[in-house]
Amino acid sequence: MMAMPDAIYGGHSGVTSSDKPLEYRDPNQSVKILGFWLFLATDMLLFGCLFATYLVVRTHTDGGPTARSIFDIPGFTLETFFLLTSSFTGGLSTLAMRNGNKKALVSWFAVTIALGLAFIGLEVHEFIGDVASGATWERSAFLSAFFTLVGTHGSHVTVGLVWMFLTLLQVAKRGITPITARKVFVVNLYWHFLDVVWVFIFTVVYLSGRVM
């Protein structure tokens, strides 16, 4: 039986003779994916330090605003909905990529970007409201740790959105190739990592802040 080609170039036929996903078939792409896993490990250490700092100083309000007084339950719940939904649509874009469906990949990427923008918009609105109420970064150790942790995550999300948009443009122009497949996989891996970090922020910062 004649083997089918391993590369996919923007069409809708995603069946190949290889058992490996497209992004892993080129050894060079596999090495780059491994390197990105190592990067995520270092980023995990960064967030671990920020979480540890926040847990130590979260009660150090210096008579200023507390977590209970500034955390808006509907607001951070809606943020969570948008970001976790974007993780699901990002997964669908990876599935479309592995099926060789360029149109579906671009569409799901666009939906993921829209949801990510909604998340960032809500977070910016939250920060503006906090500052307007007197909950500024320099007011207390608690607020410094809060803005640093949540702001660092937000900046990561912003980078992810720009990265995803640029990857979408490359897929739209070049189709699905081993190189663009690796880029789609890696940016979605980064996006899922940010969602996991947000689950911890949602639990450790917002929920515990409202309860304690």
UniProtKB/TrEMBL annotation:
It is a multi-pass membrane protein. Pfam families: COX3. Residues 34-210 form the Heme-copper oxidase subunit III family profile domain. SUPFAM superfamilies: Cytochrome c oxidase subunit III-like. The chain crosses the membrane at residues 34-56, 76-97, 104-122, 142-169, 189-209. Keywords: Cell membrane, Membrane, Oxidoreductase, Transmembrane, Transmembrane helix. This is Cytochrome aa3-600 menaquinol oxidase subunit 3. The lineage of its organism: Bacteria, Bacillati, Bacillota, Bacilli, Bacillales.
